[in-house]
Design a protein that fits this description.
InterPro entries: THDP-binding, Transketolase_N. The chain is α/β, with parallel strands linked by helices. The protein is 39% helix and 12% strand. The radius of gyration is 17 Å and the shape is globular.
């Protein structure tokens, strides 16, 4: 098992890769990648049963990134864990490159399903969890959603379905950074009382600091926390976490890191441009 220091370092490297990839590609979604760096670090470094040398093993845990626009972070953690060569990151979102600008399963080891159209990840993950239950397979299904995509009605159909089928092998993790593409969540369409809504639908809910290795580990190692119930982990995070001028800033949903901003971001992450 990796130490907390190793997981913190993995989260830092995820952020470094994500900002470099966006700079090279002229793309965006850096803030969305940064907010879930520790979530991915803990999942891939400590929690999930996955093996890079056998990415399609029958007993592997499944991971679905419903917020597929933040795929820079997912590609980064997969490369860091050895699912594919680190060099692939250099061609992210470029003509002829192997890594498209939204999470894509075709030809990319470790990615279970292509995502990007919001509101689809949890329904797919719920189907995977139901299949595992009916086939008596031991794997679990982890799905990371953005808070903004919880506006999508399809998520709440899955939220009703999973408790009905007692899918305690399903874990939804909400990256609750409070900002969506065009504004703050509270201004666009408020989610609160968020925890109460999931509880009312029949889920077991735990709230954590989404940047705390210990809190994430404690919540995710205890799955299922209640037998017969799916678990929703509401991870309170900060968009753009790790670079002070990006933190909690709507601008960094779509802005491309360039010039002095790019150099400053890398410096704050302990890297040289």
């Amino acid at each position: 098992m990796k130490t907390n220091e190793e997981l913190t370092e993995l989260a830092r490297r995820i952020r470094v890769h994500a900002v470099k990839m966006a700079n090279r590609a002229g793309s965006c979604h850096v803030g969305s990648s940064f907010s879930m760096a520790e979530i991915l670090s803990v999942l891939y470094g400590r929690i999930m049963n996955v093996r890079p040398e056998d990415p399609e093993a029958d007993d592997r845990d499944r991971f679905v990134l419903s917020k597929g626009h933040a795929c820079g972070a997912l590609y980064s953690v997969l490369a860091e864990c050895g699912f594919f060569p680190m060099e692939w990151l250099e061609s992210f979102f470029q003509n002829g490159g192997r890594l498209p600008g939204h999470a894509t399963a075709k030809g990319i080891p470790g990615i279970e399903v292509s995502t990007g159209s919001l509101g689809h990840g949890l329904p797919i993950a719920t189907g995977m969890a139901l299949a595992a239950r009916r086939d008596k397979d031991p794997y679990r299904v982890y799905c990371v959603l953005s808070d903004g995509e919880c506006d999508e009605g399809s998520n709440w159909e899955a939220a009703m379905f999973a408790p009905h089928h007692q899918l305690d092998n399903l874990i939804a993790i909400i990256d609750y950074n409070k900002i969506q593409s065009l504004g703050h969540v509270d201004d666009v369409l408020p989610l609160e009382p968020f925890t109460d809504k999931w509880v009312a639908f029949g889920w077991h809910v735990v709230e954590v600091d989404g940047h705390s290795i210990d809190e994430l580990t404690s919540a995710l190692q205890a799955i299922p926390q209640i037998t017969g119930k799916p678990t929703c982990v509401i991870a309170h995070t900060v968009k753009g976490k790790g670079v002070d001028f990006m933190e909690d800033q709507l601008l960094w949903h779509y802005r491309t890191p360039r010039g002095e901003e790019y150099t400053a971001a890398l410096a704050q992450l302990g890297e040289v441009a």
